[in-house]
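ugh ok fine here u go
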Amino acid sequence: MAKIGINLSTGSLQKDEIIVGIDLGTTNSLIAIVHPETKKPVVLKEFNGSSIVPSVIHVEKNGQVTVGDLAKMHLELEPERTVFSIKRLMGKSYQEAAALQNLFSYNIVADNIESALVKIKLGDLFFTPTELSSLILKSLKERAEHILKTPVNKAVITVPAYFNDEQRQATRDAGKLAGLEVLRIINEPTAASLAYGIGLQNESMGKNETVAVYDLGGGTFDISILSITDGIFEVLSTNGDTYLGGDDIDTLIVQHWINQLGIDAKTLESDKPIMQTLRLKAETAKIHLSTSEFFSDVVGDLTLELSIKDFEGLVTPMVERTINCCKQALSDAGLKKSDINNVVMVGGSTRVPLVK
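structure:
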């Protein structure tokens, strides 16, 4: 693989070609470039101003694939053929993934007894999480080529700091399947710090900064303690939970409504779309309660209600779990709270006021 130099202080490419940066997220994904003139990172947007692509894949009976907003429309119409949160299954064994089956509307099956890897069954078709992730990456690649009017073949992809070697390799393999040469896999906390310009300003040169990056996304939580000197990032410690994120908040809300309304398990088992409807409404409620005191909506003959007090009661144990991870990360780094110069909060779930 040819080495491509990237000057982190200026953002300039050392070679005249397009290299994209990709955030392959649990809930949403996006793609960015360093602008050739301003030397600043720019998220690529479609003509309608949209920059994010929902990490959702729908597969028709004939094998035709749609990704993003069009696929998301099928979550309620064909939940058994529509994949979301595939990032949570990357590099997982069947045994690990099977424990999450109740979170998904699609079927998780074992590849074979020897490898015990995961496959997703969509009708008569079978896919690995890597193959499905590659479909999202391919869609992002095509999006970039459409916007930039030039071929895109090289990429840097971010992953949670907590991803193990299998999960990182699965991400590389997904990029390769999508037709991308993955130049580097970068930890999301490092990418977040770079995006905020921490450690890259001229006045930072010669100084040492200690930064805590609190990243609560759709499917994972990471806390990373970074030491930054002259643009060089050193990870002092990392901690987190690969089963903690916005998806889990949505699940708590759904379970709250199921208990509140007395919806029985038999109904939920026979009516797959209702679970997806409730999940999507839970996401809407969560966002609504970031700026309001009360959420109410009607689905069929069901009235869905949630107060900010009840919502915070549901979410508090999750937030406490993240704080415990933070305490452990500080302990592992041999630091106190007063040693932290900056706290960077990233991930959609940090928009929940209680989290802040």
